[in-house]
């Protein structure tokens, strides 16, 4: 896992924090993170992505909802790292809200989606983030995300 000097996570470490698996695991690497502050991660977009078969065969474009999902997964990683907990099979991060979303450029095969997520507020189990994703330094999408961590086992 990470040390104070090494704030990166490889795919195997990410899989310990997120319940998502192929084809919906949309974070390939964490480049840097600071608890209760921010995280930077990447999604390598390849021509082999399942969604390109239908979106769109003649001009492949990553669906906007999946870009939002990739940013939300990045935010979820930051939530777990900030809390200092590893989720179990009953832990789920749910969306509570998505605000001020703007799509600025299409993302396609060969692009590397770099996601920068900043924690704006955490109160009563609700986290609010400012998320931006860029390709080659150009803004692709931005949004404010609100999430909560819940245990799916009812007591």
From TrEMBL:
<dbReference type="Pfam" id="PF07977">
    <property type="entry name" value="FabA"/>
</dbReference>
<comment type="similarity">
    <text>Belongs to the thioester dehydratase family. FabZ subfamily.</text>
</comment>
<dbReference type="InterPro" id="IPR010084">
    <property type="entry name" value="FabZ"/>
</dbReference>
<dbReference type="InterPro" id="IPR029069">
    <property type="entry name" value="HotDog_dom_sf"/>
</dbReference>
<keyword id="KW-0456">Lyase</keyword>
<keyword id="KW-0441">Lipid A biosynthesis</keyword>
<dbReference type="GO" id="GO:0016020">
    <property type="term" value="C:membrane"/>
</dbReference>
<protein>
    <recommendedName>
        <fullName>3-hydroxyacyl-[acyl-carrier-protein] dehydratase FabZ</fullName>
        <ecNumber>4.2.1.59</ecNumber>
    </recommendedName>
</protein>
<keyword id="KW-0963">Cytoplasm</keyword>
<dbReference type="GO" id="GO:0006633">
    <property type="term" value="P:fatty acid biosynthetic process"/>
</dbReference>
<dbReference type="GO" id="GO:0005737">
    <property type="term" value="C:cytoplasm"/>
</dbReference>
<dbReference type="GO" id="GO:0019171">
    <property type="term" value="F:(3R)-hydroxyacyl-[acyl-carrier-protein] dehydratase activity"/>
</dbReference>
<dbReference type="GO" id="GO:0009245">
    <property type="term" value="P:lipid A biosynthetic process"/>
</dbReference>
<feature type="active site">
    <location>
        <position position="55"/>
    </location>
</feature>
<comment type="function">
    <text>Involved in unsaturated fatty acids biosynthesis. Catalyzes the dehydration of short chain beta-hydroxyacyl-ACPs and long chain saturated and unsaturated beta-hydroxyacyl-ACPs.</text>
</comment>
<keyword id="KW-0443">Lipid metabolism</keyword>
<keyword id="KW-0444">Lipid biosynthesis</keyword>
<dbReference type="InterPro" id="IPR013114">
    <property type="entry name" value="FabA_FabZ"/>
</dbReference>
């Amino acid at each position: 896992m990470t040390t104070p000097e090494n704030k990166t996570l490889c795919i195997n470490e990410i899989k310990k924090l997120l319940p998502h698996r192929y084809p919906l695991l949309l974070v390939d690497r964490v480049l840097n993170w600071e608890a209760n502050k921010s995280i930077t991660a990447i999604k390598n977009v390849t021509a082999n992505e399942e969604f390109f078969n239908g979106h769109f065969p003649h001009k492949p474009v990553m669906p906007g909802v999946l870009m939002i999902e990739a940013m939300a997964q990045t935010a979820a990683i930051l939530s777990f790292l900030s809390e200092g907990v590893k989720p179990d099979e009953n832990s789920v991060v749910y969306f509570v809200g998505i605000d001020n979303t703007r799509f600025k450029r299409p993302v396609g095969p060969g692009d590397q989606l770099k996601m920068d997520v900043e924690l704006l507020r955490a109160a009563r189990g609700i986290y609010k983030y400012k998320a931006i994703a860029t390709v080659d330094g150009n803004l692709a999408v931005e949004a404010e995300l609100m999430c909560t961590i819940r245990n799916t086992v009812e007591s």
